[in-house]
């Protein structure tokens, strides 16, 4: 063991959290020194992400432990080498290695905060340079960069990538996005070549961003964000430096000045980048003492709090360590504001890093030294917690856990008692808030704004609109200024105008760009009523619309209000859409855009009463099945390019739960099982053949990624595969023979109950038929009524002990509600030996099975219908449980209209009575059948 090794420099050790992962990690580490092995094992047991990295990079990591700094340098030097055969894969491998080494060095206390963030930032620089060089090389070979040669690749040919934010300050967090601004020096090109050169640089920028952020089987490098450039809603992703200069000189705002404090050239023509930053110095650093920046920064803080819903007292559950009160952003704003005030007159204050800038501010007398010492200590602690939150799943999150288990996991990472950790967090957050809040001036008092009619809105809400991203560009602001009187007049006509205004404010705050939407509303004012209706009624649909405003284009199409086309027609439409896409990634994005418009249409139709809950649920299911049916062959074909065609007869997607039954809500995830038939074929036949079991496991993961990965166009669906044999412990794909054997000899009753709603959604027709035949065979086995009902009673008791309803508007969880009735109805299906999937048919089977009488069956069916209607409506309004106390007037009106009640009190009373009656029916039927609980009653 050398003095430079990881093992020799450990200062802390996290505690193990998950014993199974700890054992798996220990098996990988060989003869690693025990003290280091203890840290790695504990880290892997806490973090599934670190465990995954360790499995992939064990050999390299063990070697790097001898000298972690040398290991880091080797990775960076490798990706910087020109002429890499596969730069994208090299970058992904490099990111895995840096993330693993950095995570262990951080958790073990080997590297301090600056070394951790510096390592991540140095690799990000190298990755940007490699991706830019590879992307420019493609354009150069195609002759799209006039006047440039191979020798220009090293310097970017006049193009520079500016690292902004945390990357610019070399403060990247563990799972950070990287904010980039891409520019090119237009003086290197003649007038006739300018447009061709700009187009080439734009294509190279997009390719660079894709190489860094696209998710593949090897992972991704960095999520990239190019939106900090001037007027990002309308400008190209790579701009001429002169155009950017003109923008900042005439239209630049305080937040952009603050952003450029940390700006740094990181790739391409570094000299040109430094020259550009020099031209911006008068914009960033004002010659006079700029105390107005305090008010601007304070208003930005308030806007962030309002936008993110982070106001109010500090509570730990879910608290945002970055943007919440007392968080990281408070310290950064505090520091940057003081830099802006005096940095024009004192060049010593023009530092990128937060901690170095704080030290200089103290030395120069702008901030008391004791405040700087405290803020520096809290900043380090906050960033450490932020890193650990992100290490768990490589998620760009800053939110503290919402559960005790989550805090226990976090406490293991920092080797603290859970309650001590909580107390420390509360103390630090409050201390930061108290230290920073007093330095900001109070907000300006808003003046009342006169409106048409007698109503006056809160002017403070309207005043902040111009600070939102959608109104950053002059063009967007000008169009909106003309729209605003009409919008306010329409809002004033709402039943509760102030509530409608707040809802519209939330929508506008989430809108990333406004020119296209505002232009659309200007030309088609009838859309304003629809927009206000949506944002006032459904926060979930409003959030979707704010991020995907382009779906409003579909409203103007001639078929938006035409009859529903059905699943088969939807499949044809999607296949035609994808036929025009050139590659796999664009097909995935094309699917997302297409599905988003249809999903939006269903929600609008339901919201406006054009369809009821039952029809909406069928349409959501049609849409999901169409997507799966079209996408499964696309994913399979892409996978086959590398690993060969599917061995044997291929695989089918077996929809479970609501997907299998053909009834989804607006927020349903997709329950699925993958079943394959290898027909004794042991390996695939391709460039990189795989064993059959591994082939289908990886194909399944590719499908899950295709559905749930956050791409440029968002996600499609979340996927849940816990209903597969053996649940999360079983393989993600199951052979037909294994599935049959398991279901016939090992499956629990609950697994047979789940099969009552199973249906093949996609895959080869002959295999689909065999799976359906097997399903029927399983379900039609003779069943003893008392045994099935006894098992159902035990499952029902366990569910009740594990979960409780979220309130009177929770239609799913609780006695006599959806989950309860569905379980009972599936028992009726199983006892009767039917293969029906519909819950209504299962309820109808209960009298035939001798479980309940016809009158009880009718009451149960009525309760289920009302619960489903409420569930479908509630999920359209919000993905979170509805609270009657906070539900807006428009939302209440929608629920009452949907369930045909005059007011919320009547609706709640009706649901309570219906669910109580259903629970009584189920209780009575199961009472004589339920034996005492045992320790081995099932999962």
TrEMBL record:
The keyword Transport does not apply. Keywords: ATP-binding, Magnesium, Multifunctional enzyme, Nucleotide-binding, Nucleotidyltransferase, Transferase. It comes from the Bacteria. GO terms for molecular function: nucleotidyltransferase activity. Residues 307-440 form the PII-uridylyltransferase/Glutamine-synthetase adenylyltransferase domain. The keyword Glycoprotein does not apply. Residues 48-278, 531-771 form the Glutamate-ammonia ligase adenylyltransferase repeated domain. PANTHER family: BIFUNCTIONAL GLUTAMINE SYNTHETASE ADENYLYLTRANSFERASE_ADENYLYL-REMOVING ENZYME, GLUTAMINE SYNTHETASE ADENYLYLTRANSFERASE. This is Glutamine-synthetase adenylyltransferase. It comes from Sulfitobacter aestuarii.
């Amino acid at each position: 063991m050398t003095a430079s090794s990881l093992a020799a420099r450990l200062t802390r050790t996290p505690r193990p959290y998950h014993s199974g992962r700890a054992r798996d990690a220990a098996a990988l580490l060989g003869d690693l020194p025990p003290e280091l092995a203890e840290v790695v094992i504990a880290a892997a047991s806490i973090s599934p992400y670190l465990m995954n990295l360790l499995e992939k990079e064990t050999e390299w990591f063990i070697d790097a432990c001898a000298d972690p700094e040398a290991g880091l340098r080797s990775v960076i030097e490798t990706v910087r080498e020109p002429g890499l055969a596969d730069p994208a894969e090299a970058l992904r491998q490099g990111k895995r290695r840096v993330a693993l080494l950095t995570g262990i060095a951080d958790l073990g206390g080997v590297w301090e905060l600056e070394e951790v963030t510096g390592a991540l930032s140095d690799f990000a620089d190298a990755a940007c340079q490699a991706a830019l060089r590879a992307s420019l090389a493609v354009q150069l070979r195609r002759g799209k960069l006039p006047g440039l040669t191979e020798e220009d690749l090293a310097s970017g040919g006049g193009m520079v990538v500016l690292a902004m934010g945390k990357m610019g300050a070399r403060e990247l967090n563990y799972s950070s996005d990287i904010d980039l601004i891409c520019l090119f020096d237009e003086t290197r090109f003649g007038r006739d070549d300018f447009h061709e050169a700009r187009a080439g640089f734009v294509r190279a920028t997009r390719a660079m961003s894709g190489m860094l952020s696209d998710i593949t089987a090897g992972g991704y490098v960095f999520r990239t964000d190019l939106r900090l450039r001037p007027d990002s809603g309308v400008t190209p992703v790579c701009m001429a430096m002169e155009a950017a200069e003109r923008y900042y000189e005439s239209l630049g705002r305080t937040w952009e000045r603050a952003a450029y404090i940390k700006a740094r050239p990181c790739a391409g023509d570094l000299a040109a980048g430094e020259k550009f930053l020099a031209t911006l110095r008068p914009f960033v650093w004002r010659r006079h003492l700029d105390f107005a920046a305090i008010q601007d920064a304070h208003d930005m803080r308030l806007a962030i709090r309002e936008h993110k819903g982070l106001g109010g007292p500090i509570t730990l559950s879910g608290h945002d360590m970055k943007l919440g009160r007392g968080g990281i952003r408070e310290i950064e704003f505090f520091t940057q504001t003081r830099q802006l005030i005096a940095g024009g007159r004192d060049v010593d204050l023009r530092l990128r890093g937060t901690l170095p800038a704080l030290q200089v501010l103290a030395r120069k007398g702008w901030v008391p030294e004791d405040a700087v010492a405290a803020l520096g200590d809290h900043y380090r602690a906050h960033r450490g917690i932020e890193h650990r939150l992100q290490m768990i799943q490589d998620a760009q999150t800053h939110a503290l856990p919402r559960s005790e288990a989550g805090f226990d996991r976090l406490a293991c990472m920092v080797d603290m008692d859970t309650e001590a950790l909580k107390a420390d967090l509360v103390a630090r957050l409050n201390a930061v808030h108290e230290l920073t809040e007093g330095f900001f001036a109070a907000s300006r008092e808003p003046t009342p704004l006169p409106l048409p009619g007698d109503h006056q809105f809160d002017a403070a809400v309207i005043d902040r609109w111009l600070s939102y991203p959608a109104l950053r560009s002059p063009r967007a602001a000008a169009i909106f200024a003309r729209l605003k009187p009409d919008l306010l007049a329409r809002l004033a006509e709402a039943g509760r105008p102030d509530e409608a205004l707040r809802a519209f404010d939330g929508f506008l705050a989430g809108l990333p760009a406004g020119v296209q939407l505002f232009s659309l509303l200007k030309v088609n004012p009838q859309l304003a009523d629809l927009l206000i209706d949506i944002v006032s009624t459904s926060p979930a649909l409003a959030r979707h619309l704010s991020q995907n405003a382009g779906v409003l284009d579909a409203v103007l199409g001639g078929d938006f209000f035409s009859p529903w086309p059905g699943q088969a027609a939807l499949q044809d439409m999607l296949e035609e859409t994808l036929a025009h896409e050139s590659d796999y990634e664009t097909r995935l994005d094309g699917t997302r855009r297409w599905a988003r418009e249809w999903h939006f249409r269903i929600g609008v139709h339901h919201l406006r009463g054009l369809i009821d809950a039952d029809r909406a649920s069928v349409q959501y299911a049609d849409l999901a099945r169409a997507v799966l049916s079209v996408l499964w062959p696309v994913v399979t074909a892409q996978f086959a390019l590398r690993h060969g065609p599917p061995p044997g007869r291929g695989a089918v997607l077996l929809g479970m739960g609501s997907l299998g039954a053909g009834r989804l809500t607006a927020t349903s995830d997709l329950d699925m099982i993958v079943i394959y038939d290898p027909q004794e074929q042991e390996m695939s036949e391709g460039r990189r053949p795989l064993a059959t079991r591994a082939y289908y496991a990886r194909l399944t993961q590719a499908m899950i990624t295709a559905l749930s990965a956050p791409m440029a166009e968002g996600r499609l669906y979340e996927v849940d595969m816990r209903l597969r044999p053996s649940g999360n412990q079983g393989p993600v794909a199951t052979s037909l023979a294994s599935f049959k054997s398991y279901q016939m000899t090992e499956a629990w009753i609950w697994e047979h109950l789940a099969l009552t709603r199973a249906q093949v959604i996609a895959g080869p027709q002959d295999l689909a038929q065999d799976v359906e035949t097997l399903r029927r065979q399983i379900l039609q086995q003779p069943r003893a009524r008392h045994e099935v009902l006894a098992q159902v009673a035990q499952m029902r008791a366990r569910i009740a002990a594990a979960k409780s309803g979220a309130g009177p508007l929770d239609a799913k969880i609780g006695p006599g509600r959806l989950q309860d009735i569905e379980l009972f109805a599936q028992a009726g299906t199983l006892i009767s030996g039917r293969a029906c999937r519909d819950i209504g048919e299962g309820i109808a089977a209960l009298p035939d099975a001798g479980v309940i009488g016809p009158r009880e069956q009718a009451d149960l069916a009525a309760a289920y219908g009302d619960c489903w209607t409420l569930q479908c409506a509630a999920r359209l309004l919000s993905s979170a449980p509805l609270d009657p106390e906070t539900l807006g007037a428009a939302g209440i009106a929608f629920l009452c209209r949907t369930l045909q009640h005059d007011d919320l009190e009547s609706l709640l009373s009706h649901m309570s009575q219906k669910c109580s009656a259903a629970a009584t029916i189920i209780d009575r039927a199961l009472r004589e059948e339920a034996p005492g609980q045992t320790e081995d009653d099932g999962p």
